[in-house]
Amino acid sequence: MEDFYFEDETPQADSNVDLKRYWRTILHKWWLWTIVTLAISIPWILYVKNEQPVYEAQAVIQFQSYEGMD
After folding, report:
1. What is the per-residue pLDDT across 12-45, written as a single tens digit (0 to 9) for each?
2. 45: domain range?
3. Count of domains for the chain
4. By mean pLDDT, which of 7-11, 48-52, 61-65 is the weakest?
5. Helices 30-50 and 19-28, interaxial angle, to 10°?
6. Does a structural domain hold residue 31?
7. First-to-last C-alpha distance (Å) of the chain
8. Cβ proximity of 50 and 43 under 8 Å
9. Is pTM beyond 0.90 here?
10. How far, in Å, CA of 31 to CA of 37, rounded?
11. Phi, psi at 62, each rounded to 5°
12. Cα–Cα distance, 9 to 3 (Å, whole number)
């Protein structure tokens, strides 16, 4: 099967992806990632801890006897 590319697009294997550059960008903003993580985690933990547990179950047991199985 022939690969399809747009005019100005190069195949993924030919492109040079600099993962170190992305990693440095993420680490450079470590404080932002920490604030976002805490801003989401703390309210979620408080909500889960204060939520009343709901226990609800329902079951039906049905016995059926067959002739000759006694």
Report:
1. 555 567 888 888 888 899 999 999 999 999 999 9
2. 1-51
3. 1
4. 7-11
5. 60
6. yes
7. 65
8. no
9. no
10. 10
11. -130, 125
12. 12
